[in-house]
Amino acid sequence: MLETKSEGPRNLAFVLSEGNGQISREVVTILSGSGVLDAGTVLGQVTASKKYTISPNAEVVGKEGAETAKAVLAYKVDATAADVEAVVVARHAEVKEPMLIFDASVNDNTKRTAKLTQLAAATIISR
After folding, report:
1. Summary mean pLDDT of the chain
2. How far apart are CA 12 and CA 74, in angstroms?
3. What value does the mean pLDDT take over residues 78-90?
4. What's the whole-model pTM score?
5. Which residues does residue 15 pair with via DSSP β-bridges, in sequence order?
6. I need a labelling partner for 88 at 20 to 30 A (CA). Which of 38, 44, 97, 108 fits?
7. Where are the beta strands (DSSP E) in the chain?
8. CATH code for position 93
9. In which domain, by residue range, is 21 found?
10. Within a domain: residue 109?
11. pLDDT given at position 7
């Protein structure tokens, strides 16, 4: 019997275009407890710690500030048990909207549009 396997999101597959050199990317710290995050995950920055985590629809206690989308994760990471460094697309980029991964709380078109607008403010434009 053949085993069926599926491939998850590929690293940087969500990028349509980005600025020359390394202008679009940054190395950031992903907050411990964020879990396994795939490339293309929309991230926000926790105000107090300056660490990044998946961007929820509304403010979460202990993760204030992360509700504003600011970046997109470039490579899959596992931040289940410890903080990890990660590369993100932080500015001057076009991304493929269907390939972006949102928090489960971003569960309708209005909330998704709000996240895309927040990314646009960081000059990350979805197509």
Report:
1. 95
2. 5
3. 98
4. 0.93
5. 95
6. 108
7. 15-18, 25-30, 35-37, 42-45, 52-54, 69-73, 77-79, 84-89, 93-95, 124-126
8. 2.40.300.10
9. 15-126
10. yes
11. 76
